[in-house]
Design brief:
Layout: H1 6-9, E1 21-27, E2 37-44, H2 53-67, E3 74-79, H3 95-104, E4 111-112, H4 113-117, E5 137-142, E6 152-159, E7 162-163, E8 167-168, E9 174-180
Parallel strand pairs: 2-3
Antiparallel strand pairs: 1-2, 3-5, 4-5, 6-9, 7-8
Helix pairs in contact: 2-3
Length: 203
């Protein structure tokens, strides 16, 4: 994924970091078979230049389309640097709707966990703001399109990770989400400043 022009944004943006996405297949518990997995995708989009993000989002959708199987649960999470629509009146042509619809071109059942199960202030972009500021970090989830283990969101919340010595452990608040699935019990944490905890409990 390409970043914006160095002369425009320099060190304040992402000019010296190669943008990309990680894909991991996570087994749904110690007794799960090798094919009983979650497809998990993590990314971090351009911070300063909004003109770059649509291309990055399309590339991410292509990556998900290539590697996510429709018969598996899927999680897509990260810092998308894309502000969520104001509720209750989302705009059809907003950057958030472009993000959501483009990802759904790869996984049609994909949902944003926050409108489904979010509790408390939703902001993630500003840690010194009591509300968290803008909501720009997300956990998206998709259950299998046909047969297979579904993901049922239980609760989503923002964790500010405040620290008495350094103020905060990251420049963003973290999003945490609990899910229920059909069979195994396990826990998953993403390797970035967005945390998705899966409580996969037997129904």
């Amino acid at each position: 994924m390409c970043s914006s022009d160095l002369k425009d944004h320099g060190f304040l943006a992402d000019e010296f970091a190669s943008k990309g996405a990680l894909h991991a297949r996570i087994k749904r518990g110690p007794a799960a078979s090798d094919d009983d997995v979650l497809d998990v995708f993590v990314t971090h989009l351009e911070a300063r230049d909004p003109k770059v993000r649509p291309s990055q989002i399309r590339q991410l959708a292509d990556f998900i389309r290539k590697h996510a199987r429709p018969d598996r649960p899927t999680l897509v999470m990260g810092d998308f640097n894309t502000r969520a629509d104001e509720v209750p009146a989302p705009k059809a042509d907003s950057p958030y709707q472009f993000l959501l619809q483009t990802l759904r071109s790869a996984r049609p059942t994909l949902l944003d966990v926050w409108p489904v199960a979010g509790k408390g202030p939703s902001g993630t972009g500003e840690q010194d703001d009591p509300t968290g500021g803008r909501r720009i970090d997300y956990v998206f989830f998709a259950s299998p399109q046909e047969a297979g283990a579904s993901l049922e969101p239980i609760e989503a919340r923002v964790n500010r990770f405040l620290d008495p010595k350094t103020f905060a452990l990251s420049d963003h608040n973290a999003v945490e989400a609990d899910f229920r699935s059909e069979e195994h019990t396990s826990e998953l944490q993403s390797p970035c400043n967005l945390v998705c905890r899966l409580l996969l409990e037997k129904k």
